[in-house]
Structure formats: structure tokens, C-alpha cells
Amino acid sequence: MSSFISELLKPGGGIALIPFIRMTIATLLIMVVLMFIAGVARIHMAVLAFLSVGLLISISWFEKAWNDVQSKRGGSTGADSSIGAGSRRKEQEKTD
Q1: Distance (Å, rounded) from C-alpha 76 to C-alpha 16?
Q2: 18 exposed, middle or buried (CB, 10 Å; 0-12, 13-18, 19+)?
Q3: Which of 26, 7, 27 is CA-nearest to residue 17?
Q4: Is the CB of residue 15 less than 8 Å from the CB of residue 81?
Q5: Which of 78, 33, 24 is nearest to 56 (CA)?
Q6: How far is 36 from 31, CA to CA, in rounded Å?
Q7: What is the Cα–Cα distance from 15 to 12, expressed in whole angstroms?
Q8: CB 29 within 8 A of CB 49
Q9: CA-CA distance, 56 to 34, in Å (whole number)?
Q10: Which residues, other chains included, contact 76 with Cβ-Cβ below 8 Å and sequence gap of 6+?
């Protein structure tokens, strides 16, 4: 468990949470649709469903953009691809 937390705290490590975030938003969407069908605050549930779909689309867009950037850098894609401290030092040492 501590290794997972240490991975999350690394720069770029939050990308490991995307599957969890996607699952949480999908569960929210399912619950909102069920409540809409049940007739509970229909207008509110319609708005929440619209917002949930927008969140799912934005998460997918972010993940695609992240994977594109990682592939252009030559790094691996996925949860374990993060910017290490060594590469940051190299970028900081450049003086033009």
C-alpha cells in the first residue's frame, strides 16, 4: 500500500488514478440515470447526467493527450510513466 501511495506522490503519478476516477464517475452516472427514471428531481438528475457525461469525456480526452505526450517523449504510457527527478535536473541545468 505504501508503494502505491509513493507512486501517487511522484511527479506525474496521479495518472494512476484515472481508472478509479472513471469508475467513480460512471457509477455516479448510473445512479443519476436510475434516479431520473424513478422520477426523483428529474431536472436536477438530467443536469447531473449531462455533467457526468462531460466529465467522462474530459477524462478520456486528458488520458489521450497524456498518452500522446508520453509517446512523443519516448516514455512508456500508463500509470508508471512519470518524470523523474534526474530528468528535471537536466532540464534545469540548461542555460541559453
Answers
A1: 13
A2: middle
A3: 7
A4: yes
A5: 24
A6: 9
A7: 6
A8: yes
A9: 18
A10: 70
22: burial class by Cβ within 10 Å (0-12, 13-18, 19+)?
A: middle
Domain boundaries, the chain: 16-73
Report the pLDDT value the prediction gives residue 96, as an integer from 0 to 100.
Answer: 61
**What are the cell numbers at 49?**
447526467
Q: What is the DSSP-derived secondary structure letter of residue 78?
A: S
Please report, for residues 7, 16, 32, 62, the alpha-carbon distance to residue 79 in angstroms, rounded to integers and kept in the order given: 9, 4, 29, 14
C-alpha cell recorded at residue 9: 506522490
- Residues 18-45 have pLDDT tens digits of 899 999 999 999 999 999 999 999 999 9
What are the grid coordinates assigned to 88, written together?
528535471
Task: Tell me the per-residue pLDDT of 47-96, one tens digit each, with 9 for 90 and over.
Answer: 999 999 999 999 999 999 989 998 998 865 554 544 444 444 455 566 66
DSSP letters, 20-36, are HHHHHHHHHHHHHHHHH
